């Protein structure tokens, strides 16, 4: 049985990886946005941000959630035949923070749901699988950080106005990530795709590293993986 797995997001994707995601975004953004809006019609109005509607969309698409023991580098995977998204049983133990667990869980489920929505079928073609990962990542960004929800947010208006110091810009990102229920690194990558942030211009330097909370956990986890893979 073939499964599509999630790839851990990097704290700074390679320039080539960013170009691939950017190309996918410019090619499919209107289609993805239309698909997302159609899916949200199946949810009631008791949501403020799209992540809160995720469970309703899973039910509408008849996709179940289950826990499973997964390899350490996997947080979630989708089983196409059974229409099940399995999440790592020890996810909270890996992250050591309840709020981080919830945010990473939502991001991981959205990524795997994208494979179902985009009708990615399991196969042996490695290049096709790589393209599917890019497509699923971009779809998840557009779903959890939808432009139609954030374009009028004060944080976005302030950043687009320009002249914002990096530490103030980072504070805006934290506020917006808290509202959306995603990690700040996930939000940052989405805004880079949208052209709101310049790619690589705002990185977690020592002075800007998160000091506490879920994004510190996410930063440390991604930083340790980057060191291992260096």
Question: What can you tell me about this protein's structure?
Answer:
The protein has 230 residues and is of the alpha+beta class. It has one domain (3-229). The protein is 57% helix and 7% strand. The protein has ten helices and four strands; from the N terminus they run E-H-H-E-E-E-H-H-H-H-H-H-H-H. A four-stranded mixed beta sheet has the order 1-3-4-2, covered by helices on one side. It is globular and about 50 Å long. The chain starts with a strand and ends with a helix. The model is unreliable at 1-11, 204-214 and 216-230 (pLDDT under 50).
The geometry reads as globular
Rounded to an integer in angstroms, the radius of gyration calculated over CA atoms is 17 Å
Q: Assign a percent range to the helix content.
A: 55-70%
Number of strands: 4
Order of secondary-structure elements = EHHEEEHHHHHHHH
**Taking all residues together, what is the mean pLDDT?**
81
Largest sheet: 4 strands, mixed
Structurally, how many domains make up the residues?
Answer: 1
Strand order of the largest sheet: 1-3-4-2
Strand content bin:
5-15%
Structural class: alpha+beta
Number of helices: 10
Question: What's the N-to-C terminus distance?
Answer: 32 Å
Q: Low-confidence runs (pLDDT<50, min 5 residues)?
A: 1-11, 204-214, 216-230
Task: List descriptors.
single chain; about 230 residues; four-stranded mixed β-sheet; disordered C terminus
Question: Could you give a quick summary of the protein structure above?
Answer:
The protein is an alpha+beta fold and 230 residues long. It has helices spanning 15-40, 54-60, 91-95, 98-117, 126-144, 147-150, 154-161, 166-180, 184-194, 214-229; strands at residues 3-5, 64-68, 76-79, 84-88.
